[in-house]
Give the backbone structure.
Amino acid sequence: KSGLNFMTFKFAEDLSPGLYRDGIFNLIGVWATVLFGYVLDTLFLFNVAIGVAGWFYGRSRNVGLVKSWPEFCVCFKRAKKQFYTKILLTERYNYSKQQRQIAWAKCWNLILQFLREEDYLSNDEIERYSYEFEEGTGFLDGNITKQPDLKKC
């Protein structure tokens, strides 16, 4: 038995001299595969953890709250009312209906401009969803000439 093992070892050493010296390359090879597996497992678990954390973060920021276009149109009207009460504070200040509409139109167009700069909207969508208005003498003066077309997405 020992002669056969000795001959096999001698034959392998002859093919690649020094490879089996003190078993250092075997040890490196085994630990390299273990380390590689560890890195892959850690990377996989990290990606899963990032995905779960991103999902919870998105849910906390109400991402995915609006799931259909008709639902968006309802939320658009609700957002306009919320803008009047929470941003313009219409209970405290007396804005005319025209001034409230101009303020909402300017705010809405700024939101669309930001979404365009981040490439979430195309130029056609900006054209369709934007308000157009004639500027007046004051910041909230003017006339709205075009309402956003929210009929199609």
Summary: Helices lie at 2-15, 24-60, 69-87, 97-117, 123-129. Strands lie at 132-135, 142-146. The longest helix spans residues 24-60.
